[in-house]
Design goal:
Elements lengths: L3 H9 L5 H11 L10 H10 L12 H6 L1
Helix pairs in contact: 1-2
């Protein structure tokens, strides 16, 4: 099974459902996520607790110029 962080990374890549993420977060962390929290609330709560973090990417100078 994937961790909450791996599921969050998959959402950022467009490979996982936000609805399923919230369901899993409520099931795995009921002490933090209430039945009334949505996706944005859940992500904010988990980030503030240090459970989630943003995925960092490293770009070299050539890749950066393309952006």
């Amino acid at each position: 099974m994937k961790t909450i962080q791996e599921k969050y990374n998959a959402i950022l890549e467009g490979k996982f459902s936000k609805t399923q993420f919230v369901r899993d977060a409520k099931r795995e962390l009921p002490q933090l996520i209430s039945p009334y929290n949505g996706y944005n609330d859940s992500v904010a709560i988990l980030k503030s607790r240090g459970i989630l973090s943003e995925k960092k990417i490293h770009l070299d100078a050539k890749e950066y110029e393309k952006i």
